[in-house]
Amino acid sequence: MGPFSFRFSYPVRVTLDPKEKIVRYESTVLGIAKLDMRFHIVDRGDHSVTHEVVEIRSRLPVERYTAGECRKYHSMVFANMESEVLGKVHL
Fold first, then answer.
1. What is the pTM (predicted TM-score) of this model?
2. pLDDT for the residue 36
3. Which residues of the chain are modeled with pLDDT < 50?
4. Is there a contact between 58 and 85 (Cβ–Cβ < 8 Å)?
């Protein structure tokens, strides 16, 4: 990414639709990009599959960087979702 590191955090609104088995993350990142992530959990008998849709909207050319950060923290998002949310959804 370069010689400089830049750390930040941002609030995320997390909603759950238990009937449709969709977890949604919505946030505004640094006031310059809107991030909307939807995870649809599909029951496959002895396991589940998660379909992910990520939408990034900004007037600035930050989509590539933001998409990279989403991929970077992808595993952490799923780990948090499993421990915090999926335990409450009966698949």
1. 0.64
2. 92
3. 91
4. no
